[in-house]
Amino acid sequence: MANIIDGKQVAEDVIATVTKATATLAEKGVTPGLAVVIVGEDPASQVYVASKSKKAKACGFHSVQHTLAADTPQADLLALIGHLNADPAIHGILVQLPLPDHIDAGAVIQAISPDKDVDGFTFVNVGRLGTGEVASAFVPCTPAGSMLLIERERGRDLSGLSAVVVGRSNIVGKPMANLLLAANCTVTVAHSRTKDLPALCRTADILVAAVGRPEMVRGDWVKEGATVIDVGINRIPAPEKGEGKTRLVGDVAFGEAFERAGAITPVPGGVGPMTIAMLMANTLVSASRAAG
Ligand code: GUN
Fold first, then answer.
1. Which CATH number characterizes residue 219's domain?
2. Catalytic site positions
3. Cβ partners under 8 Å of residue 86, min gap 6
4. Could you tell me the distance, in angstroms and rounded to a whole number, from the CA of residue 160 to the centre of ligand 1?
5. Which domain holds residue 86?
6. 267 and 170 belong to one structural domain
7. Fewer CB within 10 A of the end CB, N or C, for the chain?
8. Does the beta carbon of 49 lie inside 6 Å of ligand 1?
9. Is 288 part of any known ligand binding site?
10. What is the pLDDT of residues 80-121, one digit of tens each?
11. Do 101 and 156 fall within a single domain?
């Protein structure tokens, strides 16, 4: 039976370290500043953004939130990003995705200064990670947090391990694969067109599921002793809890995978809390760089 990886605890450790370092940086006269921008009223995005702003305050950051109407013209959003890029009190800019359809998300992301791109989505930071310049990159928060959990579990030397990443998104799958490659894993990225996905997953010492499909990865897809990182957060009906009730599940059938894995992240309480913690860590790094 697997060790259950306590992402909530690791995230709390990261936040405690960031909070301490923020106090030290304040002695130099620098307070990390994080600007979070949300366009429209997507309920899930509102919850995420509120918790990012709240956590930034708890770390001792200067935390600002810009809430724009759903019909905000793209030019207005680009103008706001221009102001934030130029504001010396702001070290991190996060534009919550998804954006409304009339806005070109790519154009907005690329307008963020790479020096303040704490999401790690600009071409400069993607390029740094892709060329193995991990130390100088801002790494997207969910894969960065997943990597920390993997290293805590398996140690820092992942050399030669076989890693399978299921999902090829720009936010999780691709940067996760690049991080594992930079750590000398043998990496395969699987996606919806992959043939015989169960057999491929069974080759993985490290299996990362990031597809957004509830409980897709079954127990018999998991190699005995593998480290399983479940990035999925899916809300599904839970009639057993009462009419209309729901519950959260990951992309992995936890009960089944638990029987075979060496270690596995739960949902909730695994990767989820790490995402916000790594956003705080990235913002602190940005402020430290600005402080010189
Ligand atoms: N929407 C879902 N995940 C993320 C994320 O990591 N960053 C941003 N900006 N938006 C998201």
1. 3.40.50.720
2. 52, 96, 119
3. none
4. 31
5. 29-116
6. yes
7. C
8. no
9. no
10. 999 999 999 999 999 999 999 999 999 999 999 999 999 999
11. no
